[in-house]
Please model this.
Amino acid sequence: MSMGAYDEAEHERRERKASTVDADFDDQRNEYEGRVEYEGESTEELLDQFKEIQSS
Model:
């Protein structure tokens, strides 16, 4: 089969896979305890750095 050729069986397999819902996972959220400290940079400097990263 050449690249890009239509494969009906593969299409149906992917359709079945995409239409099923996997509800077999843990619904509970993880809880973390602790604290975060930033040294040397003000809130404004951190926000400026965040905006710079986002624009990249």
